[in-house]
TrEMBL record:
GO terms for cellular component: membrane. It is a multi-pass membrane protein. Belongs to the MscS (TC 1.A.23) family. The chain crosses the membrane at residues 257-279, 302-322, 328-346, 358-377, 383-400, 412-433, 453-476, 497-516, 536-556, 584-603, 609-628. Pfam families: MS_channel_2nd. The keyword Ribonucleoprotein does not apply. This is Small-conductance mechanosensitive channel. It comes from Flavobacterium nitrogenifigens.
C-alpha cells in the first residue's frame, strides 16, 4: 500500500486519458498553441523518442516484476523456516511432559540454542529481502526523472497516439503492484512468526536452564520432601498410564534426535563398514594362505571370535563419546547395546562367576534406566533408586573383583570402582534429603562410569589387535613368516591410546554430571585469554595447541612404520629398502608438516617469526653449525640414498648393519652387539663401503688342503656338488676354485663363492663341514 501511495500521482498521469474528458474546441485551441510553439523549438521529441521512453518504462516495470517474484533461495528459506518450526514445536511439546533428567535437558538446551541461531539468520534474511523490495520501488520512482516520458504524459494529443502502449504499461503496473503487495505481506507475516518463535525459544531456554540449575551439586536446594516428610503425590496416579505417556514422549524425542544427527550417524556407519571390510580382508588373506594358526599365536582375544562384533563395539564407543548431549533414551539405549555386544565377546572367555557378576551389573543398569526414563518421581522411584544404590555399593566392594582379572587394563578399574562406590553413596544421601534429580543423575553416572571403563578397556585391546593384524599381514605378504615380539610392541603402542581412552572416559563422566559444558567454557576462556609479553601477544591455547601438534607429529612419524609391517627386527634379511626409503621420506614430510602446522596454529605473526628466524641464524653462526650440518646431511642421505636401513657398511674403523636413520644421526649395529651412533655429517664427509648397495650377497673364500690319491678334476666335482647342495650358498653366481699348490698326492686350494652377507660366518662354517664329509667319503684327507 505504501508503494501505491508514493507512486499514485506519477502513474495516474499514465492513464489520465482514461478518466478525463475535454471539449473538442479546447483540444483544437491547445493544438494550435503547441504547433505555434514548436515552430521556434528545435529540441522537440520525436515519435521515436516517445516510443523509446515508453519501452524503457515497460522494461523497468517488467524488471521490477521479475525481481519482486520470490526466487528459489527465498522458497528454500521458507522451507527452512517450516523445518525450524517443526523442531521447535517438538521440543516445546517434549518439555511439557518429559522426565527432568539432565540428559534430556542438555539436549534441549543445545537444540534450542541452534534454533535460536537459525531464527536470527532467518530474520536477517527476511530483512535483506524487504530491503531489496524497497530498492525495487526506488527504481520505479526514478521514472519521474524521464523528461521525455513526462512531456508525453502532459501532451493529451500524443497520448491518444500511443493509447495501446499506455494500456500495456497499465497492465504491467497492476501486476507489479499486486505482486509487490502480496510478497510484502508474506515477508511481514514471516517476520512476525520469527519474532514470536524467538520469544518462545528464549522462554524455553530459561526453563531448561532453570531445570539444569536444579541439578547442580547442592544439598541445600530441596526439590522434594525429605524421606521423613514424604507424602507421595504420585501414588494416586495411574502408573501404567504414566509409563505409556513417558514412552511416547521419549520415543518422539529420540526419533527427532535420530533425524537431527542422521548425517553423523550415517558417516560413522560408513567408516565402520570400511573398517569391517579392511579387517575381514586381512583375516581372510591369512586363512587362505595357511596362517590361521598364527592368529592364535598373536594372543587375540576378540578378533579370533569374528570381526562384526568388535567393529560394533568400536562404533558404539565412538557413538557414546560423540553424542554427549543426546536425549536420555537414545544414550541409554546405546549404552545397553554396547553392554550387549560386550557380553557376546565375553561369552565362553570369562569364568562363570565373572560372567554372572557382569550380567548382574547389566541388570542393575537396565533397571536404573527404566526407572529414570519412564517412572514418575515419587516414593516408588526413590525407594527403587536407593535399593539399586545399595546393591551397587555391595557390588563395588565385593563382586567387582571378579571382573578385574578379565580386563586388559586393570589399573583403570581401581579408580572406576572408587568413583562407582562414592557416587552411589552420594546418591543415597541426596535422595534422602530431597535432591532427587541430582541423586538420579549421580546414580546413572556411577553405573555409566563403571561400564564405560570396561568398554574402553575392550576397545583398546581391539585396536591393538587390529594394528598387530595389519603388521603381521603386511609381513606375510613380503614373505616374512617369522613371528615378532607382539607383547613388547603392544606395550609400546598402547601408551598414546591410553591417553585417548582416559580423555574419552573423563568427558563421558563430566557430561553425565552436567559439568562438562561449564568446564569446557572455563577452559576455553582460560586458553583464549590474550596475554602480552613486550610486543608479543599470545594465548595459552595457541601454546598448548603448538605442543600438541608437535607431540602428535613425532608420535606419528615414530609409529607410521608399523602400519607397513616394519618393526625393530635386527635379524630380518628380506628388508625392502625401497619401502624403507619411502618411510624415511614420509617421516620427514610428517615432521616438517607438523612443525609448519604447529607454527601456523600458534598464531605467531610473520614479522615476529622473521625475528625468531634471524635470531636462530645468529645461533647457527655462533654454535649450532654441527646441528644444522647433521640435519641437512640427514635430508641428503634420505634422498640421495648412499646407504639405507639394512645395509651392511664400513665407515672408517666401524662396520655393521644400519639399524635406523634419523634426521640427525644414524644407528649401526656392530657384529659384537654394540650400537654405534654416527652423526649424519660424518657419514657424508667420510668414505663409505656399502656391501649391500646393489644386492645382499658377498664373495667369501675358504682355503684347505687335500691329501690322497686323486686328480684335480675329481676335486673340482666334489667341491661343486657340495656347494650346490648348500641352501645358504648363492648358486646363481658360479663358485671359483683356485690351486695354489699341486704335488703328488697333495693339493692346496682356494674356493670363492657367494652367500648372504647377513649369514657369512654361518655359511662358511657349513661349507667347511660339508666339504670335510664329502672328501672323507671319498677316502681323502681334508684339512682347513
Amino acid at each position: 500500500m505504501i508503494f501505491q501511495k508514493r507512486t499514485f500521482y506519477f502513474l495516474s498521469l499514465f492513464f489520465v486519458f482514461f478518466v478525463t474528458q475535454s471539449s473538442y474546441a479546447q483540444e483544437q485551441k491547445q493544438v494550435k498553441k503547441e504547433n505555434r510553439g514548436r515552430l521556434f523549438n528545435d529540441t522537440t521529441a520525436t515519435d521515436s523518442d516517445y516510443l523509446m521512453a515508453i519501452e524503457k518504462a515497460g522494461e523497468v516495470l517488467e524488471s521490477a516484476y521479475n525481481d519482486i517474484d520470490f526466487a528459489g533461495d527465498t522458497r528454500h528459506l521458507f522451507g527452512e523456516m517450516k523445518r525450524t518450526e517443526s523442531k521447535l514445536n517438538l521440543i516445546l511439546e517434549s518439555l511439557k511432559g518429559a522426565n527432568p533428567n539432565v540428559r534430556n535437558q542438555q539436549m534441549y538446551r543445545i537444540v534450542l540454542q541452534e534454533i535460536q541461531q537459525e531464527l536470527e539468520d532467518q530474520n536477517k534474511a527476511i530483512n535483506e529481502r524487504n530491503l531489496n523490495l524497497e530498492k525495487i520501488k526506488s527504481r520505479v520512482i526514478e521514472l519521474r526523472k524521464d523528461k521525455t516520458l513526462m512531456t508525453l504524459i502532459k501532451d493529451t494529443i500524443r497520448r491518444k497516439q500511443f493509447k495501446k502502449e499506455f494500456a500495456n504499461l497499465r497492465k504491467r503496473y497492476v501486476g507489479t503492484d499486486s505482486l509487490m503487495t502480496k510478497n510484502q505481506t508474506t515477508l511481514n507475516n514471516k517476520k512476525r512468526l520469527t519474532v514470536q518463535r524467538k520469544i518462545a525459544v528464549s522462554n524455553a531456554l530459561v526453563t531448561v536452564e532453570s531445570k539444569l540449575e536444579k541439578s547442580g551439586i547442592s544439598i541445600f536446594k530441596k526439590e522434594y520432601p525429605s524421606w521423613w516428610q514424604i507424602n507421595d503425590s504420585a501414588a494416586s496416579k495411574k502408573v501404567t498410564h504414566n509409563i505409556k505417556a513417558k514412552i511416547i514422549i521419549e520415543e518422539n524425542v529420540a526419533e527427532y534426535y535420530l533425524g537431527y544427527k542422521a548425517g553423523g550417524l550415517i558417516t560413522l556407519c560408513f567408516f565402520m563398514g570400511l573398517l569391517f571390510w579392511y579387517i575381514n580382508r586381512n583375516v581372510k588373506y591369512l586363512k587362505a594362505n595357511g596362517y590361521s594358526e598364527s592368529l592364535s599365536l598373536l594372543n587375540f582375544k576378540y578378533l579370533n571370535r569374528g570381526v562384526l562384533v568388535p567393529v560394533i563395539v568400536i562404533a558404539l564407543n565412538i557413538a557414546v563419546v560423540t553424542n554427549l548431549y543426546a536425549p536420555a533414551l537414545f544414550l541409554e539405549f546405546i549404552q545397553l547395546l554396547l553392554l550387549g555386544a560386550l557380553t557376546i565377546l565375553f561369552k565362553n572367555q570369562w569364568s562363570g562367576v565373572s560372567m554372572r557378576n557382569w550380567l548382574f551389573l547389566i541388570g542393575l543398569f537396565f533397571a536404573l534406566c527404566f526407572l529414570d526414563l519412564f517412572i514418575t518421581i515419587g516414593l516408588l522411584q526413590r525407594f527403587a533408586f536407593v535399593a539399586i544404590n545399595l546393591l551397587g555399593i555391595r557390588y563395588g566392594l565385593v563382586q567387582i573383583k571378579t571382573l578385574k582379572d578379565e580386563l586388559y587394563i586393570k589399573g583403570f578399574l581401581k579408580w572406576a570402582s572408587i568413583l562407582f562406590i562414592g557416587l552411589n553413596v552420594l546418591s543415597i544421601l541426596y535422595n534422602l534429603f530431597g535432591r532427587v534429580s541430582l541423586s538420579n543423575m549421580l546414580s546413572l553416572t556411577a553405573f555409566i562410569s563403571l561400564t564405560q571403563i570396561v568398554a574402553l578397556s575392550v576397545l583398546l585391546k581391539i585396536i591393538l589387535e587390529i594394528i598387530l593384524l595389519q603388521i603381521y599381514t603386511t609381513r606375510v605378504k613380503r614373505g616374512i613368516e617369522k613371528m615378532f615380539d607382539y607383547e613388547s610392541l603392544s606395550d609400546t603402542l598402547k601408551k598414546p591410546f591410553i591417553i585417548v581412552i582416559s580423555y574419552m572416559w573423563l568427558i563421558v563422566i563430566a557430561s553425565n554430571l552436567n559439568i562438562w559444558e561449564s568446564l569446557r567454557a572455563s577452559l576455553a576462556s582460560l586458553l583464549s585469554h590474550p596475554n602480552t609479553i613486550g610486543s608479543i601477544t599470545f594465548t595459552l591455547g595457541n601454546i598448548v595447541l603448538f605442543f600438541i601438534i608437535i607431540w602428535a607429529a613425532h608420535l606419528l612419524q615414530k609409529y607410521v612404520a608399523y602400519f607397513f609391517g616394519e618393526i625393530d627386527d635386527e635379524n630380518e634379511e628380506n628388508i625392502n629398502k625401497r619401502q624403507h626409503s619411502k618411510l624415511l621420506i614420509t617421516r620427514l614430510v610428517v615432521l616438517i608438516s607438523g612443525y609448519l602446522l604447529a607454527v601456523a596454529a600458534s598464531g605467531m605473526p610473520l614479522d615476529k617469526l622473521s625475528i625468531l628466524l634471524g635470531a636462530l641464524g645468529v645461533g647457527v653462526g655462533l654454535g649450532l653449525q654441527n646441528v644444522v650440518n647433521n640435519f641437512v646431511s640427514g635430508i641428503i642421505l634420505i634422498f640421495d640414498k648412499p646407504i639405507q636401513i639394512g645395509d651392511v657398511v664400513e665407515i672408517s674403523s666401524e662396520s655393521g648393519r644400519v639399524k635406523s636413520m634419523g634426521l640427525r644421526t644414524t644407528k649401526i649395529n656392530a657384529p659384537n652387539g654394540a650400537e654405534i651412533i654416527i652423526p649424519n655429517g660424518n657419514l657424508l664427509s667420510q668414505n663409505i663401503t656399502n656391501w649391500t648397495y646393489t644386492d645382499n650377497f658377498k664373495l667369501v673364500e675358504i682355503t684347505f688342503e687335500i691329501n690322497g690319491e686323486t686328480i684335480p678334476q675329481e676335486i673340482n666335482t666334489i667341491v661343486n656338488e657340495t656347494l650346490a647342495n648348500l641352501p645358504l650358498v648363492n648358486n646363481a653366481k658360479p663358485s671359483q676354485i683356485y690351486y695354489s699348490s699341486i704335488s703328488d698326492g697333495k693339493y692346496k686350494l682356494l674356493i670363492k663363492f657367494w652367500c648372504s652377507i647377513y649369514r657369512t660366518e654361518e655359511t662358511i662354517s657349513s661349507a667347511r663341514q660339508e666339504l670335510y664329509v664329502s672328501f672323507k667319503n671319498k677316502g681323502l684327507n681334508f684339512s682347513s
